[in-house]
Amino acid sequence: MSKSKFKNPVVKWIDHRLPVFSFMDHELNHYPTPKNLNYFWNFGSLAGFALVTMIVTGIVLSMNYTAHVDYAFDSVERIMRDVNHGWLIRYIHMNGASFFFIVVYIHIFRGLYYGSYKAPRELLWILGVLILLLMMATAFMGYVLPWGQMSFWGATVITNLFSAIPVVGESIVTWLWGGFSVDNSTLNRFFSLHFVLPFVIVGVVILHLVALHRFGSNNPIGIDVKGTQDTIPFSPYYTIKDLFGLSVFLSLFAAAVFFFPNFMGHPDNYIEANPMVTPAHIVPEWYFLPFYAILRAIPDKLGGVLFMFGAIAVLFVLPWLDRSPVRSSQFRPIFKIFFWILLLDCILLGYLGAMPAEGIYVTLSRIATAYYFFHFLVLFPLLPYIEKTKPLPISISEPVLSGGSTASAFAAREKK
Amino acid sequence: MSTKSNSQSSKNEGKRDFLIVSTYAMAGIGAASVAWPLIDQMNPAADTLALASTEVDLSSLEEGQSITVTWRGKPVFVRHRTPEEIKLAKEVSLDDMRHPEADEERVANEKFIVLVGVCTHLGCVPLGQKSGDVKGQYGGWFCPCHGSHYDHSGRIRKGPAPTNLEVPSYEFLSDNIIKIG
Fold first, then answer.
1. Where are the domains of chain A?
2. For A199-251, how does the pLDDT look when each residue is reduced to its tens digit (9 = 90+)?
3. Cβ(A366)–Cβ(A352) under 8 Å?
4. What angle do CA B167, B169, B175 make, to 5 degrees?
5. How many CB atoms lie within 10 A of CB A127?
6. Sign of CA dihedral A393, A397, A402, A403
7. Burial class for A137, CB neighbours closer than 10 Å (0-12, 13-18, 19+)
8. Residue A20 distance to chain B (closest CA, Å)
9. Which of chain A's residues have a Cβ under 8 Å away from the Cβ of B42?
């Protein structure tokens, strides 16, 4: 079989002994993909691209960075001023983190809208949530490395979350710090972990892809592929579509890197860390704001921490909370409305996380937090009993090739 | 291109080839221009280049004394040679030298020899700066790593090193001050 597949004799020789070319041909070239994927299916490969960008620029930055409280801030400034193209590499890395989260959040909401977490893709979803958690840990520790005021106080606040744990909390925080405050030991271990965790993410991404390729991509209609008439090969159709999406992504990314590189950062982080003075208004990076709002909404230290982590933990069990057999929101009229409410709720939480914890903001945070958990813990399990879903098409091809309103509309247009 | 195709389809094939080639060319240029900053960041940074010259005051350096100064992270040997050493360095025949260079070509002021103190074999620092050091058969410097012998002008005379000790570019700012680099 492999004899006829490759013309190049070297490729043929290697493939006979080590079938990497057959593997790539099977998984990236012929890989049968539902033919009705829309542009929301671009965000997985975009996330992969962002991960590679972060690793490449990160390795390069680490060649010029010094993980020591006395030198870290200056070494980052040296990267910005003296290292050849250092400003570019650092701005790519800095904004790359934000764009990585933008892409991943869209990817997650895509999964929520089209029910991509449902059987048989539960593990695929769980691995994805695991990647999100690892990304959050990595991003948090990376933000500490420049050793600015936000780095230092962010590290102090986030590590102090663990002090909420009863009995052993204080000991855990001391262990995390390697001392009695965020200091040189903390910086060193954060650098080490910030370097290694991305490679752990790569490992989980590989598992994510293995799980994906087991049953193939979900699709906007959310029904299973019935046969080859419902699929097209990944290459060239989706490689081209992904590349087009990538060029749009890169245009926006380049605009941020070259024209607004500090838009998503905080000016306070260009002030060197000072353990004696906390900035007046400390906020995490934007991608943590919804979780930060949940933390502050709960008027109890341990409770706030539990709800914040619970906001992610609930995603792990999502495949079992949603009992509806219908995947795509296109056929779930009530679920669809609540999807948009959830999205607005998350954006509202993000806004509230950036606002000071006082007055109306606290009340709104509590309402938004309550809705978040209501959505997942009450609405998801109950909705299938209330909701009347729309009839599903027989196959992916059916709405186009035979009967149905779409086909008749098409026929009507043809007559004109 | 198939021989059967009419002019229209061969024209389209030509267009397609042009599109494919120009797409790959643009992608190649894009990839190279992204790769360059990632490679170039390993070259010396602006602050490293700014430290590329060193000034040395020779007024306290007595005849027969040597000092070692740091230039670009490497040792530079400065020796105030005795008249005897100068005579030896000048009079020796260049014929049997591996890397023949006259002493005059290697000094700006014959009293002072300035050398990059790195053996041209594999980069060790030769002995000969301190009074008690082994100076080799030719009385200049001796590299303990693999046994290269240098004379009073820093020329390789015996051992594995291929060339003479390098003379850095330097100039006399005044009678007693040199600027290396």
1. 1-30, 38-282, 289-392
2. 999 999 999 999 999 999 999 999 999 888 899 999 999 999 999 999 999 99
3. no
4. 100
5. 20
6. positive
7. middle
8. 24
9. 63
- The whole-angstrom distance between A246's CA and the closest CA on chain B is 13
Backbone angles phi, psi at A280, to 5 degrees: -60, -40
- pLDDT score at B93: 87
Q: How many CB atoms lie within 10 A of CB B26?
A: 10
SS3 state at B80: strand
**Smallest Cα–Cα separation from B121: which of B88, B96, B149?**
B149
Q: What is the pTM of this model?
A: 0.86
Q: Which residue reads 């009079």 in tokens?
A: B91
Candidate from A83-92, A241-250, A314-323, A402-411 with smallest mean pLDDT: A402-411
pLDDT in tens, A286-328: 999 999 999 999 999 999 999 999 999 999 999 999 989 999 9
Minimal C-alpha gap between B19 and chain A (Å):
14
The mean of the pLDDT values for chain B is 89
Helical spans, DSSP H, in A260-300: 289-297
Q: Give yes or no for residue A272 having a pLDDT over 90.
A: yes
**CB-nearest partner of A64 from B36, B40, B41:** B41
Angstrom distance (rounded) from CA A261 to CA A279:
22
Q: Is B149 a catalytic residue?
A: no
Type of residue found at A111: G
Listed in sequence order, the residues at least 6 apart from A275 whose beta carbon sits closer than 8 Å to its beta carbon are A152, A181, A182
DSSP string, A103-152: HHHHHHHHHHHTTTTSTT-HHHHHHHHHHHHHHHHHHHHHHHTT-BHHHH
Q: Domain A38-282 maps to which CATH number in 1.20.810.10, 3.90.1310.10, 3.30.70.1490, 3.40.50.300?
A: 1.20.810.10
Q: Which class for A62: exposed (0-12), middle (13-18), buried (19 or more C-beta within 10 A)?
A: middle
Which residue matches tokens 């605009």? A255
Low-confidence ranges of chain B (pLDDT < 70): 1-7
Enumerate the β-bridge partners of residue B70. Answer: B75
Contact B172, B130 (CB under 8 A): no
The answer to whether residue A231 neighbours chain B at the CB level (below 8 Å) is no
CA-to-CA distance for A27 and A8, rounded, in angstroms? 20
CA–CA dist A332, A326 (Å, integer)? 8
Give this complex's ipTM.
Answer: 0.79
pLDDT of A4 > 50? The answer is yes
State whether residue A53 sits within 8 Å of chain B by CB.
Answer: no
Half-sphere exposure at residue A300, Cβ-oriented, CA atoms within 13 angstroms: 6
What is the C-alpha to C-alpha distance for residues A194 and A187, in angstroms, rounded to an integer?
10
- The pLDDT tens digits of the residues spanning A122-139 come to 999 999 999 999 999 999
Distance CA(A365)–CA(A276), nearest Å, equals 30
Alpha-carbon A360 to chain mean position: 30
CA nearest neighbour of A124 among A236, A195, A214: A214
With an 8 Å Cβ cutoff, is A56 touching chain B? yes
The whole-number pLDDT of residue A408 equals: 45
